[in-house]
Amino acid sequence: MSLLSRPESKQEMRPLPLELAARALLHALASAAPRGDGEFIRIEQEVEHLDVFRTLAAMPAGTRRYFRTRTGSFEVAGLGCASSVAARSLMQVGGSAEAVIFTADAFDPSRARDKVWAPFTQHSTMLPAVELRRTEHGDRVRGVLAVHLVDLDEARGWLELLAQEVRPKCCVDHALTRVPDDISEGAWTRAVRAGLEEIRTGKLRKIVLGRTARYVGSSEIDPMLVLHRLGHKEPRSYRYLIEAQAGRAFVGVSPERLFSRVGRTLKSEALAGTRPRGIDAVADQLMGQALLSSAKDRREHQFVVDRIRDALEPFSETLRFDDEPRLLRLGYVQHLRTRIAVELQEGVSDESLLKALHPTPAVSGSPVVEAVDAIRVLEPFDRGLFAGPIGVRTAHASEFAVGIRSALVDGDSLTAFAGAGIVDGSDAADEWRETAHKLLAFERLSRQS
Prior knowledge:
By secondary structure, the chain is an alpha+beta fold. The chain folds into two domains: 18-162, no CATH class; 177-447, Anthranilate synthase (4-Layer Sandwich), CATH 3.60.120.10. Helices cover 28% and strands 31% of the residues. It contains twelve helices and 22 strands. The protein has helices at 18-29, 52-58, 118-121, 152-162, 185-200, 223-233, 281-292, 295-312, 350-357, 368-378, 428-438, 440-443, and strands spanning 41-47, 64-68, 74-79, 83-85, 101-104, 125-127, 130-137, 140-149, 177-178, 206-216, 239-245, 248-252, 257-262, 265-276, 316-321, 326-329, 333-344, 365-366, 389-393, 397-402, 406-410, 413-423. The strands form two sheets. Strands 1, 2, 3, 7, 8, 9, 10, 11, 12, 18, 21 and 22 form a twelve-stranded antiparallel beta sheet that branches. Strand 19 and strand 20 (397-402) form a beta hairpin. Helix 1 (18-29) runs antiparallel to helix 4. The radius of gyration is 22 Å and the shape is globular.
């Protein structure tokens, strides 16, 4: 299917309340029909005071998507599926500057032994049937409700729901209970030692090993509630939700940008090296200074910087890096971060950038190919979307986060993921504690109001 949008009108629209906007689009459906040449029609209406998250939370579960940038200046939700292709090739097709395509790819597509991830692969790249978007440009805030006409019945069904008064669902405290770790500290220690042996022999310079923590709720877990609570604690992170089917969703609040692109201007970053936050301002400052002065963490961080430079140089007209890493302070941990700015050559596609940049050594290791091979052997679980690229794109811009600080919601079960970079000098107990700090947001989910 060609993602060539045909907006009904270019004229300035008067913003309407959400219910009236949905009714206006329903009225437009009466005289619209999908084209027979594989294209789709996009009809949109401006919405006043649009609350994207609240509206999405009130919609039936099953095929919902959500993405919010770190600043909150852009957020978008998708309902239903107008077009779904389980390949990145969809991202190369031309499209409207307005239509948003959602993408969520596995960390390692060649490793797919856990059936729980199978439904997600069917919708890795998706154009939603209905889109809700909120953007901020300076003092101007704009909300848009849009429909992509491929299946008229599906589009009409979602619009009829939105044409009613949107009422938030009653949120139930899931009273999450931790269950025994799938990976014991002893098993973790053995994996770290095996990774260090690969480093000692020169096969690797770094490997990122992950572990899981599982929780069971007193009722079916609402992924939107989980995302709301995670975002409350980490307001400066990306927020995302990928729902494969009712009761099964992947959610997270990632601090890490893979890349963002507007036209030919690209921004990326290296994020590696971690310390916990201090219990007060003085302790926090000491923790940060220790991270900045740590030779081990600086070495781990430099692997990521070097890899991103090597990946982006073939596509770049200009390439600029921070002279020194700076601290990125989050709710429970702080990281070393180096920012990268690029002016791309003409004609560079998002698909090419994704292929070049993912996975970075921040979530795999160095060298990347050898590290991913070792991860397949040493990690006893399928990462699925954990540490994969999660993002959105239009014809002229794109934004992709790395799917970390994330969890898989499956009915009344929540499996959270965390990883740590292993380099020469790493200690298994220290790295176990680092992953524990990264999991604190999930440990405290049920304690938040």
